[in-house]
Specification:
This protein is mostly helical. The protein has 4 helices and 2 strands, in the order H-E-E-H-H-H. Pfam families: DUF6069 (PF19545).
Amino acid sequence: MTTIATTPTTTRTAGSSVVASIGVGLAATAAAGAATMIVAAAGEAAGISLDVSGAPIPVSGFGVLTAVFSVVGLVLAAVLSRTARHPRRAFVRTTVILTALSLVPDVIVDAAPATKALLMLTHLVAAAIVIPAVARRLSA
């Protein structure tokens, strides 16, 4: 009797790659949401007001908005992975531009200068977490 040795192979399908990317993106979203809440809470503890136009932003609001816009970024990544010739490059360029644009309302909002700076910092913290995590999962 002859035995044939075989080596197991693993293949990565497009579907499994998409699922893995979504998982990484959701983990980054959760991390970014937590990080922005920590930054906001630390700022508030340091005496920085979270009032914008006379209304306070709850610390949890930072996490919620971070999650919402991060999910929009995940949808953007999914669309670009199917339509762009270089999805990673397109995603990074687009999200960096969108991050820069997201700072504009913080600059013009009716709030103290320290509050404006804290708001901008939370945008940058979220972007620094989500953009690289998602970009690494996209093909170059």
